[in-house]
Write a structure and sequence with these properties.
Radius of gyration: 17 Å
Number of strands: 0
Distance between the termini: 25 Å
Order of helices and strands: HHHHH
Oligomer: single chain
Length: 134
């Protein structure tokens, strides 16, 4: 089933950009909390939970927007810049997840953006921020 780009009537670029900004705020809070927290003795030894996977969280947050918004330069550039912001405050796992998604964005942009200048903008932005090439 082919994927549809973001629909202007339902999911306009402004909404996608707003969602990306929301993800950045949420991840920033989580990253800062994670960086500030100290390992301590368990207060509730009967409570069990799975460890959060940075890769899974980034995949869940960004994959659909990358795919569906990649035909729009403003969404694509917002994604690259947002991943850069997260990478700058995160640990190695966050930096790896951000670089991985930056590479995906470049590949989608090369397939879906019409203007070569827009594709070059995405490549340049990713290169400056992440030193990545497709």
């Amino acid at each position: 089933m082919p994927t549809e780009p973001i629909s202007p009537g339902v999911n306009d670029p402004g909404t996608a950009i707003d969602i990306i900004s929301t993800f950045v705020r949420l991840f920033s809070i989580w990253i800062n909390f994670k960086n500030d927290s100290q390992e301590s003795e368990a207060k509730f030894d009967k409570v069990r939970f799975c460890t959060l996977s940075v890769k899974d969280m980034f995949d869940d947050a960004f994959t659909a927007i990358e795919r569906d918004g990649s035909s729009l330069i403003e969404v694509t550039i917002k994604l690259i810049k947002s991943l850069s912001a997260l990478s700058s405050i995160g640990d190695e796992q966050v930096q790896q997840a951000a670089a991985y998604h930056a590479k995906r964005i470049i590949k989608y942009a090369e397939q879906k953006l019409v203007l070569e200048s827009d594709i070059n903008n995405v490549r340049d932005e990713a290169q400056i921020i992440f030193s990545v090439k497709p």
